[in-house]
Specification:
The protein has 265 residues and is an alpha/beta fold. It contains 10 helices and 11 strands. The chain has a single domain, classed as Alpha-Beta Complex (Spore Coat Polysaccharide Biosynthesis Protein SpsA, Chain A), CATH 3.90.550. The strands form 2 sheets. An 8-stranded mixed sheet has the order 3-2-1-4-9-6-10-8, with helices on both faces. Strands 5-11-7 form a 3-stranded mixed sheet. Helix 2 links the parallel strand 2 and strand 3. Helix 8 packs parallel to helix 9.
Length: 265
């Protein structure tokens, strides 16, 4: 199975560097890494260009103009450039457990998307991690807020992982799915601008199309660097789009990956 990691980023090259390092150290390497860049300045481009020269990874820098928070469109654009059969979404403020990709591959199943878990780092620990270029953590590492999520255990994962159709705790920063399932619902809805709800609405259409959820615990672990919260100023508008998809039992969005393809061609 050809596997693509799509990594979102915006003007935080220090965090992006750690995320790339953690991908490089995976026990199972992806076929490619596509950086879905929502309009970062030259510092990120400089970092990516430098990193690509020395990395064993196939890295593609997918950039779009900065006209506000447009992560839905940024991910669609990255998927257009992907060649993998299976896609794992992560964010650029995530450091991956060494078995993260392997866990996603093992848990991939037709008819399902995979939802992994994350561990939150404190503000102090995040500053130390960036300063020390640290990408390895354990249950005993300082500054972990929900420490039990850092336990990696295949046995516990088999016991505690569940399948359901809930929208609770949907996290597109740690999500795996087959590319054909993504294309079947026309990807993310580009109408979402500003932080919030684009991932939940995406999953509503997945559910309505017969693709359900696997919650993975004690596997597919990532460590979330602390940062200030994004603005919620457009949340009310985004909630309306989400509720429309729920009420209309939508399987398709009109302004999705097809619209990005037309504009890019």
């Amino acid at each position: 199975m050809e596997l693509t990691i799509i990594l979102t980023t915006y003007n935080w090259p220090e965090s992006l560097l750690l995320a790339l390092h953690s991908i490089e150290k995976q026990t199972t390497l992806p076929s490619e890494v596509i950086i879905a860049d929502d309009g970062s300045d030259f510092k990120t481009e400089k970092l990516v260009t430098k990193y690509k020269k020395k990395s064993k990874l196939k890295i593609i820098h997918s950039w779009q103009k900065d006209i506000g928070f447009r992560v839905a469109r940024s991910r669609n654009l990255a998927v257009l450039k992907s060649t993998g059969d299976y896609i794992i979404l992560i964010d650029g403020d995530m450091i991956l457990h060494p078995n993260f990709v392997k866990d996603h591959v093992v848990n991939a199943e037709e008819g399902f998307f995979v939802q992994g878990s994350r561990v939150f780092l404190s503000e102090k620990q995040t500053k130390n991690v960036i300063k020390e270029n640290k990408i390895n953590f354990s249950f005993f590492s300082p500054g972990l807020k929900n420490r039990k999520n850092s336990i990696h255990s295949n046995f516990f994962s088999r016991v505690f992982s569940r399948k359901n159709n809930s929208l609770k705790s949907i996290k597109s920063c740690n999500m795996g799915f087959f590319k054909e399932d993504f294309l079947k619902i026309n990807g993310f809805n580009n109408d979402f601008e500003g932080w919030g709800r684009e991932d939940s609405e995406f999953i509503v259409r997945m559910y309505n199309s017969g693709i359900y959820r696997k919650n993975i615990h004690f596997n597919a672990i990532q460590f979330h660097l602390w940062h200030k919260e994004s603005s919620r100023s457009l949340m009310a508008k985004n909630n309306i789009i989400l509720n429309d998809s729920i009420n209309n039992v939508s399987k398709w969005c009109e302004n999705g990956i097809n619209s990005v393809e037309r504009n890019e061609s």
